[in-house]
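Folds abound. Consider this:
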Amino acid sequence: LKISKKIMAEASSLVGKLETEVEIKASAGQFHHMFAGKPHHVSKASPGNIQSCDLHEGDWGTVGSIVFWNYVHDGEAKVAKERIEAVDPEKNLITFRVIEGDL
């Protein structure tokens, strides 16, 4: 499974894309359900990549909600505060916008 994340920082003109490949033992629908509705469970499924995920505002899987991630990228601990921009279960789509943290 290839996970793509478009990164757009509000405070600057930085726009980019972060991609990673992660092996999972789940269907696309199951993965979307976990990532959109229960992202705090992602750290249990992939502890080497995601340390934690906390809801700062709103409800899990709801547009406008703010989620804070602690993760590892290239062996370095990182953080990201993101806003959920779109959710479409039929397309297994969730879109986040990075609003603070490491890019």
Q: What stands out?
A: The mean pLDDT is 81. The CA atoms of residues 6 and 85 lie 11 Å apart.
